[in-house]
């Protein structure tokens, strides 16, 4: 998806490929690549898991389809999706270094550049690894908080 966004975005807008454009393409490609496919299938599966009787009860109450989805179906379907969305959020951190393919200088690439300038790779790459670890731990604790808040079974209390 990175190549499509960096190659097609200039064609659609008639723009010249610049650093800002590749950064924009990278920022759009990583979340959209994950959320468009994986999260969509997670949501679709969660909505399909809601018992058919719930739909029939909402129809019996003469609810419109948007009202039925918002008030009946979505509140039952979303709690099981939270762990999967948390996994996708953390997977985005793993996919971020792939942005260097379209010349977006991200955290890992910056560590490599500093290492090549100073001939000391251990310190910058260790710092980059620690930053990725902190971001992942912070995200995991946020997902754990959301699971507890939604009272999901199996959530760490």
- The CATH H-level superfamily is MetI-like
Main β-sheet description: none
The overall pLDDT average reads 80
Rg to the nearest angstrom? 21 Å
CATH C-level label: Mainly Alpha
How far apart are the first and last residues' alpha carbons, in Å? 38 Å
CATH topology: MetI-like fold
Taken as a percent bin, the fraction of beta residues is under 5%
Secondary-structure class: mainly alpha
How many strand units?
0
Which residue ranges are poorly predicted, with pLDDT under 50 across at least 5 consecutive positions? none
Number of helices: 7
**Helix-strand pattern, N to C?**
HHHHHHH
Query: What is the second-level CATH architecture?
Result: Orthogonal Bundle
Quickly count the domains. Answer: 1
Helicity, as a percent range: over 70%
Global outline:
elongated
Question: How would you sum up this structure, described in words?
Answer:
The protein has about 160 residues and is an all-alpha fold. The protein has one domain: Orthogonal Bundle (MetI-like fold). The chain is about 75% helix and about 0% strand. It is built from 7 helices and no strands. The protein is elongated, with a radius of gyration of 21 Å.
């Amino acid at each position: 998806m990175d190549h499509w966004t960096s190659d097609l975005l200039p064609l659609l807008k008639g723009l010249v490929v610049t650093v800002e454009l590749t950064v924009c393409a990278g920022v759009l490609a990583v979340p959209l690549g994950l959320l468009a496919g994986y999260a969509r299938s997670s949501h679709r599966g969660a909505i399909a898991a809601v018992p058919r009787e719930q739909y029939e009860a909402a129809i019996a109450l003469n609810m419109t389809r948007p009202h039925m989805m918002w008030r009946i179906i979505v509140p039952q379907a979303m709690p099981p999706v939270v762990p999967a969305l948390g996994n996708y959020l953390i997977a985005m951190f793993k996919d971020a270094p792939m942005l260097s393919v379209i010349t977006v200088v991200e955290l890992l690439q910056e560590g490599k550049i500093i290492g090549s300038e100073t001939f000391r790779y251990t310190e910058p790459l260790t710092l980059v690894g620690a930053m990725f670890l902190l971001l992942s731990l912070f995200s995991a604790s946020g997902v754990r908080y959301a699971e507890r808040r939604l009272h999901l079974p199996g959530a760490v209390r």
